[in-house]
Amino acid sequence: NFGDASEEQVSGAAVLARALKAQDVQYMFGIVGIPVTEIAIAAQQLGIRYVGMRNEQAACYAASAVGYLTGRPGVCLVVSGPGLVHALGGMANANMNCWPLIVIGGSSERCQETMGAFQEFPQVEACRLYSKFSVRPSSIEAIPSIIEKAVRSSIYGRPGACYIDIPADFVNLQVNVNSIKYVECCMPPPISMAETSAVQMAASVIRNAKRPLLIIGKGAAYAHAEEGIRKLVEQCKLPFLPTPMGKGVIPDNHPNCVAAARSSRALQFADVIVLFGARLNWILHFGLPPRYQPDVKFIQIDICAEELGNNVRPAVTLLGDINAVTKQLLEQFDKTPWQYPPESKWWNTLREKMKSNEAASKELASKKSLPMNYYTVFYHVQEQLPRDCMVVSEGANTMDIGRTVLQNYLPRHRLDAGTFGTMGVGLGFAIAAAIVAKDRNPGQRVICVEGDSAFGFSGMEVETICRYNLPIVLLVVNNNGIYQGIDTDSWKEMLKFGDATALAPPMCLLPNAHYEQVMAAFGGSGYFVQTREELQESLRKSLADTTKPSLINIMIEPQSMRKAQDFHWLTRSNM
Ligand code: ADP
Ligand code: MG
């Protein structure tokens, strides 16, 4: 043997890492252990960033946020059995949100399969419900083409999650380098446009609308359709409202944004609604009465044909890429210019309602009583937030009320519980956002606004945040419970009568919990605040300090609720 190159060996782990690199995968989140540790090491050696997390679920949330923010899937790397099972929550969340994601799970050795191997589990089958594509490569030689297919599937058509199973015996197996053929990076997703006649019909329905409304969803954000949609809004002078993660595609403070009149006016009375990448699911009350007019005409724009016609019979369906279809619509209005009259009765109705809703929130925000309420907290936070910051948010009232007060001015700058209403996503999302910001937008701050209950689901990721020294500002809006809690005195009083398991309302969490000490334990800054002045001061310090993360634990009234709603059903919905 004269060191012939054809004798050179390479491990399964190295092949997998190179195949990922060839598909331009840049970020990997996970928890190592048998049998995937070597995969993480091999990936890191090739320049793929590896972020070690504390729970696979949070790792998977983080990887999926990378997909939404960058348009290329992040990888979540997990061990066999329980590791993979923990990741299913993240896969489900990504798939429901239509976000690209690659999950790679180690699995037990093939020769021990069905014998009760260590952490044996039917992983490929388990992932099928949560993904677009779930497969185990038949050999190490097959890994590069399977990785290419997974990455391509995750971003083509409606984006989603893909699973690849890597048996333990693949990881360290050595094969001849020449037996591996790497596959070129898949092409960017092809762009499809809507049928011309449908575009013409849509333009005509919009022109004839008496009370038009555009709804901008996170599909529009993902599609980078901000420029075209904004042009359409401004050229045709149309009112719009964003869905939770559609916020920022057009700035929240744009004069045509009618978010403050959302439910009881805009949705309720519109006669023509154009949906830009937003499904008619629970978030939009299924498009049905009593939340909408029975004869409202929907124009749906979506990349997924199966979505069109769900829950309603649309007036027009525009199947295609939102960015491309918006340009097609603009062409129609360039050919025959038209604008919706700015002094119409509809605009006046919307403006009036916005004014009164905004006044009601301001009134609540200005309340000087202690403990603070949600509105007071969010108004003071909003005053200091940098314009380009990323806002991550979860919790029930924390997220819902926070959304109405915290402004987004840029697209893809809000991450929250999403379509699946998942609690526990916040810290993983914030970590992903901070890592991506470090590479692409240095100096950008990530603000993570958590309810105290929501924070608990992935709270130990604070250690991850401190280990990588990500200058995230975590706000825990603490009402001692889920939806609501009770104060310390009542809690103590209650315990005189018996055990907490018998007496504590199930919504309660420990009153006055010092979550800020979790941050302090790992070297970040922790603040416990009870007044507006303390909140202002600690937030000012946290935003000024770009060298380390902070957590501000904000005590609010344990029974603090939303402002009164026009209709009883509004208080029950998440919107
Ligand atoms: P929201 O939660 O903001 O209402 P949804 O997740 O319900 O948004 O809807 C997003 C929609 O956007 C999905 O139906 C998805 O198929 C669609 N979508 C994603 N990317 C594109 C794209 N590039 N072009 C068109 N539609 C897209
Ligand atoms: Mg709470």
Overview of this structure, please?
This protein has 575 residues and is of the alpha/beta class. Strands 3-2-4-5-7-6 form a 6-stranded parallel sheet, with helices on both faces. A 6-stranded parallel sheet has the order 15-14-16-17-21-20, sandwiched between helices. The protein has a 5-stranded parallel sheet with strand order 10-9-11-12-13, with helices on both faces. Helix 3 crosses helix 16 (426-440) and helix 10 (226-236) packs parallel to helix 12 (322-335). It binds adenosine-5'-diphosphate (ADP) and magnesium ion (MG). Residues 451-453, 479, 481-482 line the site of magnesium ion (MG). Residues 97-98, 158, 217-219, 222-223, 243, 245-246, 277-279, 281, 283, 302-304, 307, 321-322, 419 line the site of adenosine-5'-diphosphate.
Helix amount = 25-40%
* Rg from Cα: 25 Å
Unreliable stretches: 567-575
Shape call: globular
The N- and C-terminal alpha carbons lie at a distance of 71 Å
Structural class: alpha/beta
What is the residue-averaged pLDDT?
A: 95
Q: What's the assembly state of these chains?
A: single chain
Q: Could you say which small molecules are bound to this protein? A: adenosine-5'-diphosphate, magnesium ion
The total strand number stands at: 21
Describe the strand arrangement of the main beta sheet, using strand numbers.
3-2-4-5-7-6
Number of helices: 22
Estimate the strand proportion: 15-25%
Tell me about the largest β-sheet. Answer: 6 strands, parallel
Main location: other
EC number: 4.1.2.63
Pfam family, one: TPP_enzyme_C
Family: Belongs to the TPP enzyme family.
